[in-house]
Design brief:
Length: 316
């Protein structure tokens, strides 16, 4: 059954599973998927200003007609709207303002619930972006803001600046996360847990690589665990992302009802600790420095009982 958690350190209720609209190409194709997601209790739909040349946002606008306020509408900006215009991309104030107006027009709404930076723009000072996002919030056109595909230090610095200067902080982080790509466990996921950010995990099935049809140790482990639990490999893969951290919301990219139906089954899968450990052991992953080093020397540095100290790390 679909549950709900708070978005970051806000009071906004968001469903356990988010629905991605990147593959929505027509209202006819997308409506059965969206209706089934809504029927299951899902309330977050995520798109971007440039997906399908704007078609994704237009389709989402159609789907939300007559029920806009019941959903958490999430979209993103950064990617170029016009490859021939140097200022039609990036996270600077001009592109933010024009992208926001474009999204509102394409979605046929006067506000966004959640507005994401789509990717870190190394050429725009983060303080310019945060101030511009805060202005969008103060205008009423945006309620909450988030960041996608950026280094942990950038996100941490941005939220520290927001805290000091009274700006709207990031409430969410959108990043790739699955058993074949666990990179965020090094810096991004611990940061999100510590700062109280919700994590929208895109590609939880590794673009189909964890659907159970491929080969390799991870896929074989998925099949074994799925068979034991009476689930599908895809359901186990999605359930693992939520089992690993309570801040993670898998972002489902289903384009057909049959795919979505299978994905929703992940909500009924409870992974035993042994199964989680077996799945992670099958994945070739290491924290690297400094994570592995700190874990290795912890006793020598912090004493014999260091592993019995409960962490103050916070999660929403």
């Amino acid at each position: 059954m679909m549950g709900y958690r708070l978005l970051g350190r806000t009071g906004l209720r968001v469903s356990d599973l988010f629905l991605g609209a990147m593959r929505f190409t027509s209202t006819e194709q997308a409506r059965p998927v969206f209706d089934r997601y809504a029927e299951a209790g899902g309330n977050v739909i995520d798109t971007a200003v440039t997906y399908g040349g704007g078609q994704s946002e237009r389709v989402v606008g159609d789907l939300l007609a007559g029920r806009r306020d019941r959903f958490v509408l999430s979209t993103k900006y950064t990617m170029t709207r016009d490859a021939t215009d140097v200022n039609a991309a990036g996270n600077h104030r001009k592109n933010l303002a024009l992208s926001l107006e474009t999204s509102l027009r394409q979605l046929r709404t006067d506000y966004l619930d959640l507005y994401w930076i789509h990717m870190w723009d190394q050429n725009t000072p983060i303080e310019e972006t945060m101030r511009a996002l805060d202005d969008a919030v103060r205008s009423g056109k945006v309620l909450y803001v988030g960041v996608s595909d950026a280094p942990a230090w950038v996100v941490a610095r941005a939220n520290t600046l927001a805290q000091w200067r009274g700006w709207s902080p990031f409430a969410g982080l959108q990043v790739p996360y699955n058993l074949l790509n666990r990179d965020i466990e090094r810096e991004l996921l611990p940061m999100a847990e510590s700062l109280g950010l919700s994590v929208a995990a895109w590609a939880p099935l590794a673009h189909g690589g964890l659907s159970g049809k491929g080969e390799g140790p991870v896929v074989e482990a998925l099949r074994e665990v799925a068979a034991e639990l009476g689930a599908t490999a895809a359901q186990v893969a999605i359930a693992w992302t939520m089992a690993h951290s309570p801040v993670v919301h898998p972002l489902l990219g289903a384009s057909r009802v049959e795919q979505l139906e299978d994905n929703l089954g992940a909500l009924e899968v409870t992974l035993p600790d042994e199964a989680v450990a077996r799945l992670e052991a099958a994945a070739d992953f290491s924290l690297g420095f400094p994570g592995d080093f700190i874990a290795k020397v912890g006793g020598a540095v912090f004493g014999d009982h260091h592993d019995r100290v409960r962490s103050r790390r916070t999660v929403p």
